[in-house]
Hints:
Radius of gyration: 21 Å
Structural class: alpha+beta
Number of strands: 18
CATH architecture of the largest domain: Alpha-Beta Barrel
Helix content: 10-25%
Number of helices: 7
Shape: globular
Largest sheet: 9 strands, mixed
Oligomer: single chain
Order of helices and strands: EEEHEEEHHEEEHEEEEHEHEEEHE
CATH topology of the largest domain: D-amino Acid Aminotransferase, Chain A, domain 2
Mean pLDDT: 96
Low-confidence stretches: none
Distance between the termini: 25 Å
Number of domains: 2
Amino acid sequence: MVEDITKISIKNTDHSRLSSVDWDNLPFGKVFSDHMFTMNYANGQWENPEIVPYGNINMSPATSVLHYGQSCFEGMKAHKNDNGEILLFRVNENIERLNISAERMCMPEIPKELFVEALKTLLELDRDWVPSIDGYSLYIRPFIIATDPYVGIRPSETYKFIIFTCPVGAYYSSSVPVKIETEYSRAVQGGTGYAKAAGNYAAALYPAKLGQDNGYTQLIWTDAKEHKYIEEAGTMNIIFRLGDKLISPKSGDTILNGITKRSVLDIARSWGYEVEERKVTVQEIIKSFENGTIKEAFGAGTAATIASINCIHYNDQDYFLPEPSEDFFSTKVLSFLNDYKKGLIEDKFNWLIRF
């Protein structure tokens, strides 16, 4: 690990691109802030932590990440309140999950103190990139990649850790139709489904495209063995409201331990809702449409926060849900989370870091 985490060298950009941002037409994930944090791992330790102008990475065509996919990442957001403070939401959980992913991918962990110091230093430098506009935030992408220039299957001996940021608006602008996937699988028992490994997302692209070609924005993934149990919704965790009860598949080795989902369920419990995290069968959800007990279905994840589902397709049939109104749980919890992340309400869960 780095001996002195306060020694982060900083090289400022000569030309800020902030003035060129079209805030009225901001695409998600395509406009990047002025700086990025970078650090290398070699000889058994992290070294040379620095902040530099955002730019391309030079690497050998033989770099191992390009061939063997040894890579993992995280996603989080920064908000700014009316006093100009930057607020980070549940950062410690992101650090812990990144290190869980790194362990599964046979990569070195990032020291928590260094992660927080790097993030604060980077955001302080690019403070003006954190939007004050309602519905906007600064998306943060930390990731680790293997960097050995070696074509051979073994864990790399060198790595690069980078944090870059980008201002974003809403990920989804409306409710989405989804399809229950019963042929392809996102994750298997003993695999990497619980890690935010890059390969998980690559493997999901083709079946997701097939669904999109048929008019469904995302898939509801099911277990790889029987396609009997619901696991995730696209790149998010999934939550159903059956009557006044919230149910969600329990996180495990095939389901990512989502921070947004945990937050939603913690809030629900504090509001007096009954919450169940357990195995959820496809048939239970289909029967809930048939008997009228299903009230809402929505995805929960960092990028979208809450993505309401208006249609679930299964076995050549579409099952429709009403568009969320102001009294829907998903609408209320989205508003609560947005206000919470901006520091507009009491931090009763102790989830925020301010600076």
